[in-house]
Amino acid sequence: MSIRVVSLASAVAGLLCLFVPVIYADCPGENSLATGKIVANPNRPTVANPADITQYGVLELEYGYEHDKAQLNQKQNQLGGLLKFAGTCNLELRWSTGSFLNQSDPNNSQSGIGDNWLGFQYRVRRQSQHVPTLAFGYALKFPSASVSKGLGSGRYDHQLVFLSSKDIKGIHFDFNTSVFLVGRPNGSGVDQNVQSNLAFSRPIYKSLGFTGEFYGSTKLGDQAPAYASGLWALTYTASPRLVIDAGMDHAITSGAPDIRRVFVGFTYSIADVYALIRARR
Fold first, then answer.
1. Where are the domains of the chain?
2. What pLDDT does residue 32 have?
3. What is the pLDDT of residues 136-161, one digit of tens each?
4. d(CA 143, CA 11)
5. Model confidence at 165: pLDDT above 70
6. What pLDDT is attached to residue 278?
């Protein structure tokens, strides 16, 4: 476990070092100094992520709690989050972590930390009148969850994702297609599946908003069947830097990993890191 944690910390430090030369770079119209304020860019509460990234130089945290009712009368409680940092105008570093995980059934209960994912998202182009925002990303799973407790697989998995976002007549749409490469339980190679997501959101009244999503995945070898699910949530913008969300996720087909999932969480823009460094110098 300690080796995995050290490896993950080293990877994070290495990626951050890539952006030391651009601390004094300019990104007109993108950073908080140019716009006059920091504005949150929530990926929560949907499974799909927006193609647009966090403001240039801004460090942002997403965190939440979820309770899942899975197949075979299993239940899961989880605390986890996502730390994002826009190192350049179009490149965002991403660290997703499961800080607490509890799984239970009528006969047993296990608790521990979850897996960690480290990756990036690169925005290829911004939205125009006729073309959506386009981006792609990659993430690597570090198997920090306990295999002996049944909380994790102990395998390094990969995700490749294409993202697209567009505003159409007051409704914001996010579309993702992801390819997952997942190690087989016996260690002999990997299985592959594809997940597609379509999320949509719009304001309801003042700071209150509505979000919906349909998503599904193809069959993952012998490990998991194909499935489809839906998600519905409300969001509340408490301030430009803080957005709160709550909602539920439900299975549409019998193969979905979760029959029902309820969640609550927040997105908070912590600071413009480059602006703080400039001010101190």
1. 2-280
2. 58
3. 999 999 999 999 998 888 899 999 99
4. 14
5. yes
6. 87
Question: Is 10 exposed, middle or buried, given 0-12, 13-18 or 19+ CB atoms closer than 10 A?
Answer: exposed
Decide: helix, strand or coil at residue 17: helix
Q: Bridge partners of 224?
A: 220
Residue spans of beta strands (DSSP E) within the chain: 58-70, 75-86, 91-105, 108-112, 116-125, 133-142, 158-168, 171-183, 190-205, 208-217, 227-239, 242-251, 258-272
| Core vs surface per residue 213-223: b (16+ CB within 10 A) or e | bbbbbeebeee
Out of 3.30.830.10, 3.60.10.10, 1.20.1740.10, 2.40.160.40, the CATH code matching 2-280 is 2.40.160.40
239 pLDDT band (50/70/90 cuts)? very high
Spatial contact of 155 and 140, defined as CB atoms under 8 Å apart? no
Tokens 């899961």 belong to residue? 76
The SS3 assignment for 13 reads: helix
> Which 3-state string (H, E, C) describes 77-131?
EEEEEEEEEECCCCEEEEEEEEEEEEEEECCEEEEECCCEEEEEEEEEECCCCCC
Please name which of 154, 116, 135, 89 lies closest in space to residue 11, comparing C-alpha atoms.
116
Residue 34 pLDDT > 60: no
- Close Cβ partners of 243 (under 8 Å, ≥ 6 residues apart): 40, 42, 44, 235, 236, 237, 266, 267, 268
55-59 average pLDDT score: 95
Burial zone of 127 (CB within 10 Å; 0-12 exposed, 13-18 middle, 19+ buried): middle
Check residues 65 and 25 and name the one with the higher pLDDT: 65
Element holding 4 (H helix, E strand)? helix 2-17
Structure confidence at residue 2 as a pLDDT band (50, 70, 90): very low
Give the pLDDT band of residue 30 (cuts 50, 70, 90): low
